[in-house]
Structure formats: C-alpha cells, structure tokens
Amino acid sequence: MVASELKAPPAANDTMFTLEQLAQQFGGEIVGDSACCIRGLAPLESAQPQHLSFLANPKYLAQLETTQAGAVLITRADLLKVKNRGARSFLVAPNPYAYFARVAQCFAAAQQLPALPGIHPSAVIDPSARIPATASIGPHVVIEANAVLGARARLEAHVYIGQGVTIGDDAHLSAQVTVYHGCTLGARTRIHAGAVIGADGFGFAPDFKGDTGEWVKIPQTGAVVLGDDVEIGANTTIDRGAMSDTVIEHGVKIDNLVQIAHNCRIGAYTVIAACAGIAGSTVIGRHCMIGGAVGIAGHLTLADRVIVTAKSGVSKSLSKPGVYTSAFPAIENAAWNRNAALMRNLDKMKARLKQLEALILTSQNK
Amino acid sequence: MVASELKAPPAANDTMFTLEQLAQQFGGEIVGDSACCIRGLAPLESAQPQHLSFLANPKYLAQLETTQAGAVLITRADLLKVKNRGARSFLVAPNPYAYFARVAQCFAAAQQLPALPGIHPSAVIDPSARIPATASIGPHVVIEANAVLGARARLEAHVYIGQGVTIGDDAHLSAQVTVYHGCTLGARTRIHAGAVIGADGFGFAPDFKGDTGEWVKIPQTGAVVLGDDVEIGANTTIDRGAMSDTVIEHGVKIDNLVQIAHNCRIGAYTVIAACAGIAGSTVIGRHCMIGGAVGIAGHLTLADRVIVTAKSGVSKSLSKPGVYTSAFPAIENAAWNRNAALMRNLDKMKARLKQLEALILTSQNK
Amino acid sequence: MVASELKAPPAANDTMFTLEQLAQQFGGEIVGDSACCIRGLAPLESAQPQHLSFLANPKYLAQLETTQAGAVLITRADLLKVKNRGARSFLVAPNPYAYFARVAQCFAAAQQLPALPGIHPSAVIDPSARIPATASIGPHVVIEANAVLGARARLEAHVYIGQGVTIGDDAHLSAQVTVYHGCTLGARTRIHAGAVIGADGFGFAPDFKGDTGEWVKIPQTGAVVLGDDVEIGANTTIDRGAMSDTVIEHGVKIDNLVQIAHNCRIGAYTVIAACAGIAGSTVIGRHCMIGGAVGIAGHLTLADRVIVTAKSGVSKSLSKPGVYTSAFPAIENAAWNRNAALMRNLDKMKARLKQLEALILTSQNK
Fold first, then answer.
1. EC number(s) of the enzyme (chains A, B, C) (predicted)?
2. N or C: which terminus of chain A carries fewer CB neighbours within 10 A?
C-alpha cells in the first residue's frame, strides 16, 4: 500500500514564460523586450536576469537601479520615476504585487505534483458519502455517513470528515484536519494541517449551591459554515454554534492558531493574523484586519474596515472603520517596571494635581 | 472497510416532550398547560409555539411579552413580574438556564446517532490493552500496551492512546486526540479534536560556557491526571509533570488552544477560556474563572473563586477571591499612541509634579 | 495488527547507580560514601535515602539540613556553607542542575521501553522514500515520495511526512505530527504531538476595487529548516517561507502552541515559551529567551541574548542584549479600571501639569 498511488510523475522544473505570454494571461503593458524569458520570481535584491521581480512600494525605487532582474512589475507612476532603466524590461500594471502573486501561482502550479484523483485504499469511507471521481482522498482519511465532496476536492492523509459534512469544489484540506458533523465548506476552501472545524462551542450553565453542583453542558447544535475562497491556518479552531451556526463569509483568510468561538460571524475578505482569539457571538465586518494575538470579547459588533493592531484587546463594539490599539511596545525592563508602578497609582497622581490646582487658585484669589 | 460499521441507523427527528414529562424528569412547577408539546428549544426572540425558551436574566423581561415560544423556563420571582402571560405556559424553576441546558441535552441525545459498541477493523490495538465490549473504537485508532478503557468509552478516528493510559467510563475523545503514556482520564472525560494530553513539560537545564554548551533536557517522568467530568477543548495542550503529575480536578472545563504547563494543579469546577496559558507548577483554586488569553506565570497560587478577566497577565499569587485585571480596551490608534508614549514617561511627570508641590510649599512659607 | 509489534519487553524498574558510577560517567567529586546507591531522583523536600537530589540555588540551603536524600548534587561554594552534613553524601559539580538532568536521563532511558526498529504494517510509505533498517515507524504513519529518514529515526502513530522531507539521525516525532513537503529536520530533532512544520506562510496580495476583488495568494515556495537538537512542543506551528526558508538553528527549544511565521530565523540555543507568536521575517539572535505569550512583530531583528518577559509585545528591533517588558501584572479589577481610564487621558493630565507650571512661573515672576 503506497502513498504514491495517488501521485503523478514529478513535474518538470524548467517552467518558462515570456513577458508576452504573461501579458496575454494577466494583462499589463510591456515596456522593453516582450520576448524576455522568465524562469522564476525573486525579490529585487536577489533577482537574476531570468527572474521577474516587482516594485510595490516607491520607497524601494533605489533598488531598481541595481537589481539584476530581467523584468520588473511596476506601476505607471513609479516607472516614470526610474532614472536608469538599463537593460531591464518592465511589465506595467496597476497592482504589481497582486500581479506578482498570480505569476507566482503559475510557476507553483507548473512545478507542483498535482494530486491524482482517486481514493487511497487505506481510507475509510462510509458508503453513503458522495465522493466524485475527480476527488483525491489520501491515506487513512476517514469520511463518515452522508458527507458530500465537490469536484476535485483533495483530502490529504488522516483528514477526518464527520457525518453530513458538505465540501465545495476544489477544496484542499491538509493532513490531520478535523471537520465535525454537519459543517459546510465552500468552494476552494483551503485548510492547513491540524485545524479543527466544528468542535463544540464552550457553553455551560452553572448549577451550584455553595461548593457542590456542576457545570451543565449546553449542547452545541449549530454548525460551522465557511464561504467560498476561505483559507484557514494550521491548528486553528473554529467552534460550531450553540443553536445557530458560526459563519465565516467568503474570501476570509485566517492564520495559524486562531480561535473563533461559537456563533461568531466573520465578514467577507476579513483577514485574521495568528494567535488571535474571538469570543462567542461576536460579529466582525467585511474587509477588517485583525492583528496577531488580538483578543476580541464576546457579543460585540465590529464595523466594516476596522483594523485592530497586534496584541490589542477589544472589549467594546467598534462602530466606525479605523485603526484601534491597546498594546504597548516592550522597553527595557527597569524603565517599564518604574512606570508601570506609577500607572497603578495614576489616581493618586491625579488627586495631587487637583490639590495643586486648588492651592494655586486659592493663592491667586488672595 | 466502512466507517458506518460502528453507527446505528439515523435517529428520528421528531423528538417531543410534554411539559409534564419534563417536570417529572427535571422538577419544576408548571404554570399553564401541562400537556403543552415541546419539539425543540430556541431563544426568546426566535422561538415558535413548539419551542421551549428560557428567561435567565430579568433584563430580557420585555421579550417575554412578544415571544412566540409555547413555554418558557423562568424563576418564580421573574414570573411575578410578567404582566401579560398570553397563551404561554411556564415552567418555574430556580435555575432556568441550567434546566434549559438539561432539556437541550435530552433533545440532542434523542437526535444524535449513538456510537455503536465495537472496534473498527482498521484500529491498531495492543493485545494487552483492556477494551470493554461496550467501548466504541473508531477507524485508525491506535491503543498501546496496557491501556485500560472504561465502559462505553468512545474513541473517534485517529485517536492515539499511549502505553498504560487509563480512561474512565463514558469518556469521549474526538478525532486526532493524543494521550501520552501513563496518563489517567476520569469518568465522562470529554476531549475535543487535536488536543494533546501528556506531552513533555518544557524543562531544560542550561549548561553553557560562553557561546557553547547545551540545554540539557530534564526527563518529564510525571503524567497528567484528569478528574471526572473534565472537558477539554480542541487543540488544547496539557503537559505531563516533571517528577510528579499535572492534575486537573473534577468538573474543570477548558476551552480551545489553552496551554497548561507541567505540574500545574487546576482546582475543581474551574473554567478556563480559550487561548489562556498557565506556566509550570502553578496551583489554581476551585471555582475560578480564567478569561480568554489570560497568562499566568509559574509557581503561583490562586485562591478559590478568583476571576481573571480576559487578556490579563498574572505574575503574583492571588490569595483572595475577587476579580483581577491588567488589560486595556483598544481605542483609536492615534489617541492610544499619544497616551502610551506618556505612560513610558510617567516617572518624569511625577518628578515635575513633585517639583511643583515643593515650589508651592516654598512660596506659601514665604 | 498490533501496536506492540514494535515494542521491546517491559524494562526493569530497579535501575540503580552508585555515586562512583555516576562520577565516572558524568564527572564531579564525591564527598562521602562513593558506594552510596541511587535508585531515583527527587527534589530536596521529598527525597528519601535512595534518592539523589540537587541544590541549584543557595537560597534553599536550609532544606539541606532536613532533607532525607541519600546524596545531593551541589557546587563547591555551596557545600562550604552546609553546617550539618549529616549522613548525606555529596556529588560536587559546577552545575548541579544540569548534572541532575543528565542522571535523570539515565534513569528515564533505563526505565523506558525502547522503540524497536521496523515499520508497522499499517504505515503507508512511498517506495521512493529511504527508511533505514534502524528506524521505527509506528501505526498509520504516512511517508510520501523521496523522503529520507536518518538512522534510528522514530515516527509515532499517525505522523505525516511530506514529499522530499529529510529527517536527521535519532529524530523522534510524536503522534499526529505533520511535516510538509521539502522541510529538513536535523539530528535528534524532537517534535511533540500535533505540531505542524511547513504549512503555508500567511501571504496574500490585496487586489480590491471598493468592495469587490480578492486576496491573491502568494505561493509559499520556501521550506522549514530545523538544525540539530531542536525540540518543538505540542501543537506548535512553524510556517514555510515565501521564497526562501524559515530557519530554526541548532539547539533551539520551543514550547507548546507557539507560532513562528514564514521566513523567520531563530538563533541557536534560543528558547521560546508557550503561546508566543513571532510574525514573518523576524530574525531572533542566539541565546535569547522569549517568555510565554510574547508577541513579536514582523521584519524585526533581535540581538543575541535578548530576554523578553512573558506577555510582552515587541514592535521594534532590539539591538542590545537585555531584558525587555511591556506587560502589566493583574490587580483588583476596580483599581485597575480606575487607573486605566486615567491612562487614556494622560495627555490631558500632562496639559494640566504644564498649565500649572506656567502659572507658577508667572506668579513667581510678578
């Protein structure tokens, strides 16, 4: 029983595109040699003549004078600022970074082994599950009853799919991902290893008299619904809802080790960086950016286009777009401790200030 | 080889209880129609006549006037405040929320597929392990030598049970859970997917001379002991002790992505929200509530009934019950930065204040 | 198919060393009975006559007077301070704690079942993978094409090894670990359960016009390279680089639930405590100590021997060794809230102070 049963032969490593081919596929205007051959991508500082590079920020214009890149993606405005174009060719486009990403995807696709369709013999699949012939099911995958997979869905080794889960076309789940029963994953969902979708939300009703009693578990009967084009990082956890669903709208990107509690709704295109945690029933708008290790309390509403900087804590709803912060940068420990001790006595400092103001007022009125 | 080998036929979805049946099982007094049929549960705002709802907080009394719920769980005190009871029936109980949770469990149990006893043929089980006939062992589970499972223990797909692990009756471990050798899990333990119980604590002795040397690993020879009725969230990690055990007492509930380091002891009924981290050898009392993303330093002792609010850091022992905090709420970035810069110079502000006080004192004494 | 196929018979539990044997193996000078038999290790307060204990910190000297330990590891300087040596023997060494750790490793090795070499029949291994005869491959392990394992490498149940991964001699990966394609693990790498090495870094180029558009994924074509003697905790995630590699140098020790983003470099012997997160492209020096739940922003450089205390956030490069902090300790909630509100108005307090200073200056000049 071999893992390679599902693999195509190794891809060629000599992928190449001319600037003209790229412009035909992705648009943009060529300034220079349209027959210029691109064999890979690289940042300006390390690019060689066979590489395509990009200038996304005019502050790196100086690097353009010295880069060895054969061609550079650039905006029209920035190209006008280039003094010495040298032998370099340019691909002029309004968003060089996004263009670069799309070309990089072409190279990556050409150099990657595609997953061949088929079901590895070690997989354990309930006969009621619907697996299209184009799907690729890796070794030791487990798929429970009534699950439905989309075309070309790819489940890598050890993935667990619970009862009645629905997975969209072209979804790709890495090794050891768990999807609990009843959850729905949109088209092109990408989930990295170890992520857990649909575990029980954390809900218990206290029933204590003094020291005795118990936490009574509230059954979590909702599920998780992921829209299309959602990406979820390694070991991230998204809990199922208590009575209704936890919803991640289309185009949301979530990094590693993020916690999203039950009944949250994350608006379309929002990005959430690693180690963030969002408590239950909070609704986050569209196009938000949640920084790394941010914590957001439960039952809040964040407007569209809210940005929360890394390590901040949000404890009230934020009704306007904008940038929000509550984190301090680390400084030398001794200086920090000196000031932190004063911070805990600001009320006393304020009282002294008030007293002084009164004293002066009195002395001036004399 | 099919996953469904261990599954019962689908449960009926037309579960129904009369108020009288509920009162017989869970107590409480019926005010209204004891034959009222309950087919499900819902919050006040979305409940329909076939639903049971609950009022746990008198601030939602207004919703009672308009809810479509057929019956409502309520305290006697709150029922007296209801002006217009309409056609609704009431179930009067001292703790409506806990009552609601117990009824919800009834519905959930009736609507869920029970796990059938048996061992999936793909499981790999050491012959010295003791597996009762009532246990349910899912596909690709691995159980090492001398492990002992309780009655009706349920291990879902890909669970790994190390050597000599003991698991109590009615324990339920979701997919991809790892339990290292020698750990003990109490009755009704519930562990969600990806959690890791008993990995090595983080212990190394530094042995360096200048730039060379090594961190010498300290073998972690203790284990993890979980009491009865402990629930552990997805991808949470609880490390084994260095020379003695890490202990989680009965009734503790732990959310997702929580880290509990070696040799901690968590007192009975304490709850720990997601993303919290507790460093080594810290002892937390009973009935504590540790908020999300809280960090607690090592070698501390927290009294019973301590509450630490979300995102706070605890660096000293807390000997009295109470609520403790060290987190700031996020505000607009510009305002935050302006004040944060001043916070790092509080010592200078204090010095200026002191100088002013001296000046005034001098001028008054003239 | 039984898990025990790969296990040796249980080890004896009566391991014993004389002080002389220990001194021969690990050095140090015996003061007392060199034939003293050591059957285990224990801390001073619970040690019995058959135990070896250690004094690493002179503040515990008082415990030496009362300990029941048969022998104690101690520095020469501390031994001179012991008033009543009693019947105890001493092993004098410059680093008692590291010595203790090494002896503990001896006992642990003697009492542990060694993993027998061999491949469990349920493992799925590509025929192009190179697995030495001395390796131990557990149940349900999956190894993809062209992976290369070192001598005595040990992969426990459900480990997933991607294409072209290279693993050094004596590496040991616990259950459910995932290593993505192309990553390299050094000799004696130790990875705990659920860790994910080499998932995609979090990189997307925004391409929006108003509300429509998409995040364009930037292919993560680098890998992760771990040096020798690296230990990685449970459920920790280390992302692959975007165009170049993420690098963890030799001797680095990383705790549980840590996130290391793409293109980071962690210098040799640095230790990172649980729940820390390090954003992309940050370079951390050698011999650093990163506390629990610390967050470090992207594209920073931290010098060698930087210490960041627990829960702090680093948002600027730190060019000098030293201890850095930005975390507050939790205090009573009411006092905290009172002062936190003032903190958000420090700018107003400063303005009042300035006004007072001006007033006094004016009144003095009259």
1. 2.3.1.191
2. C
